[in-house]
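Fold sample X.
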Amino acid sequence: MLFNSFEYLIFLPITFILYWFVFNRNLKLQNLYLLVISYIFYGWWDWRFLTLIAFSSLVDYNIGLQLDKTEKLKQRKQLLFISILVNLGLLGYFKYYNFFIDNFKIAFESIGIQMELSSLQVILPVGISFYTFQTMSYTIDVYRKKLEPTHNAIQFFAYVSFFPQLVAGPIERAKHLLPQFSKRRYFDTVLAKDGLRQILWGLFKKMVIADNCAIFVNQIFEAPQDYNGITLVFGAVMFAFQIYGDFSGYSDMAIGTAKLFGFDLMQNFATPYFSRDIAEFWRRWHISLSTWFRDYLYIPLGGSRGGVWMKVRNTFIIFLVSGFWHGANWTFIVWGFLNALYFLPILLTNNNRNHLDIVAANTIFPSIKELFLMATTFTLTTIAWVFFRANSISDAFNYYKEIVSSDNGFLGNIEFIRMLPILFILILIEWFQRKESQSLIFSNKFNWFNIMMIVVIIILIVWCGNFLEPQEFIYFDF
């Protein structure tokens, strides 16, 4: 079920009304209701997916209970190993099996050996990369004794399957989200209004920005040889805005929906395209994933505490694994490799924590230096996005080649022209809201300016949104 679909438009208010007016008297009943609703939401794509998420939840719930019963280090390590093996095993089977099989075949065929290996004809379960990491965070934190294991199965299963952020994040930590299921929740009018504004802003970024950029981007990436270099540059820039609008739009809708039900989810994006270096970008882009890798992979590997070799090794590991997490394609690995190259000079010169504050913190406009740094970071990021969007490495290099060599015509259609003022609106609003945890939150006061902004956003969604054929979110494929 898509956030931008008519089904969800019916699903959400019914779920909301029953949650607060029927099931609100009893916490256990309310959590059970959330669990059932979340399974209905997830099973809307394919009911067979439910067995997978239920099995993953059952394994980690029981491992948490077993970890609570023993203090023996050997047994605790064995239990943690089982959790990681099951979760990564399921993820590897459904997401990466064909990638490894195909590449093994190619490798052996290159030296004259024919391998009879069959690929799997399986559907990638929606959101498996997200809820797998969410359940793993629970067992790892319980193993580290940073979290008390829960003995309430309903709360744990509801935590894993919580429908707003189930299929594309944010990837919540058990330490943050799970305790919220054990506390009585009361309806908060201010929080609900805040959530509705965030949902509206997410719909704008998805339906107005991402889906309209996609029209332009798809045309160009399908046949880059038909367009000149300037058009191809615009195509890459448009994809940068498409993936931002698509993914951060989902996160906004997820966080806003959670607020309607009395839950607090972590911020997943913090105006990343206003970053002044690549390190700041990764502190602001897909925050839930980057911090997950930092806490559960980078720091355990030694982080940046060791010598130069350890810093280089760990940097490449974290970015290559992050790239591979996104998809079973060499393009994502190269995308991760490029970001590691970007990050390495900053790390080795100890400049990776230079920009911890917000850009132009005490002024309305950025300085010339800040503008240059933001433009440079955005350019480097956009260059890497070409690999993320391309179907293959050769397609990506061909795209770069056409930028510098093609002399074909410019795609001067109405879709491209219409996007320029809309992108300006996005950038303008996010710039003046860059200090906030979300955009479209100019003031909680009821005034004409707020009303005007909300009306403008609604008009743009109605005018530019594709309601007949709602587009899936890009990260549903990951």
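Fold sample Y, listed below.
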Amino acid sequence: MNEMITSAKLTDRKANKVRKRESRKREIAKSAINALKLYGYARTTLRDIAAQSDLSLGSLHYYFEDKDELLIYCVRQYKGDFVKAIAASVDGISAPSDVRAAFCKALAQTIIDEAELHRLWYDIRNQAMFDKTFVPVITEIEEQLIRMMSPLAETRAEQEILYLRFDGSFRYLLQLYLTGTPRSSEEMTALFEVVSL
């Protein structure tokens, strides 16, 4: 009986330690994203991230082996949140035209609210063409983005085509927003609605 209690306590301690470590990694990732948004992948160093996180470089290495591992963690976290937010925007809506309108409006709003984060996504996606380290996470995230099209398209082929159309439009509108010639939320929403047809 005592062995079972001791084993359960050890299991609980281990699980608690894993939860605390994961929580700390998420906190570090939030700070790292701030540095990455400002400087981009190529110009951000682990020292920049450590400074943003109020950690020593050694402490940062305790949680992440290198900048690439940290960046992959950050991109997974924020793109996962993005996909959830877009899904939530159409949750409970049944009419296809209303689903399309809500989906497109949410895409436009996220350009306004999170432009620097989306810039980081395109930065890392381009980096994957030069550095195979990033290919698995890009593939994983693009798969999520393709599945995100399911409220608007039934088949896998339709979802892929729609993703490609949205991605090109999104990147273009993001570029306009970041270079000081933004379209209004209404204009972006209208463009996305045309793309979604």
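Sample Y note: The radius of gyration is 20 Å.
Also: DSSP finds eight helices and no strands in the chain.
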